[in-house]
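Lecture 7 notes: from sequence to structure.

We start with a single chain of 110 residues. Read the sequence below before looking at the structure.
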Amino acid sequence: MTFNRKLGLEPGDDPQTVKLVTRPDHEVMPGTIHFAVLATTAEVAAASAAESAVVPASVHLSLLRRAVPGTLIGRGKLIRRGRTVTVCEGEVEQDGKLVAKATVHFAVMS
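Now the structure, written as tokens:
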């Protein structure tokens, strides 16, 4: 089982989205989702927008509001595709509100 599946990430309704229904083990303290869960959701969503085999080289994450137990939706957006490096953004929403945003530089693997 891959890390993303073990975390609980699933494909979203759109091709460049992912969905996560949080569990108690995603919480850093009762009622608050751990930043690493938000970072992974944003990074995986960003990777889906790259449309090629990529691995993260750097991730800049901004936490914008507290994420609580429930459903998280990650959306990816391609910013720049390069031959060796691709830049994408990943946003994480909960109940229609932005909770985290990441800019990810990916190393292109193929």
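Strands lie at 10-11, 17-21, 27-29, 32-33, 54-63, 71-80, 85-94, 97-108. Keep this in mind for problem set 3.
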